Predict the 3D structure of the following.
Amino acid sequence: MPSKISNAAANPAQLLDNQLCFSLYAASLAMTKLYKPLLDALSLTYPQYLVMLVLWEGDGLTVSALGERLSLDSGTLTPLLKRMESAGWLVRQRSVADERRVHVALTLSGKQLQRQAAHIPGCVVAQSGLPLGDLFALNQQIKKLRAAMQGPAHQSTNPCEPTV
């Protein structure tokens, strides 16, 4: 019979409810679940919506600039862009000056989709139940956390090598 480990004996740093990673993961799942019906109505997936957001900010980006902005590699981004091109929302064109560079531009249909999606941010804010200022502050803190975790100090050395 397996023994049951008491929570009282557990290291507080190892309790699930004390894990920042789990809180972020669970919040991400909840956020994606919230977006799903909103995006289904537009025939967009969540990753496609993120691409559209970037292109609505600045049309005509290169695939590499788009990938950098979204933290996606070309192996993930290229099939996504191909599906979006097939849907008629964007076109991909090789640069005449440098064939290695591919530019992504919105079609008229992709531009019109922006109007259809205009209600989504307000729906998300309303569903959160939090004041806009709190959401803004939370977003800033998460960006700060991500930047700290991706910073050069964390890439060159790892002070947390696993112990055996």
In short: Strands lie at 61-62, 90-94, 102-106. The helical segments are 20-40, 46-57, 63-70, 74-86, 108-116, 120-128, 132-150, 152-156. Residues 57 and 140 are 19 Å apart (CA to CA).
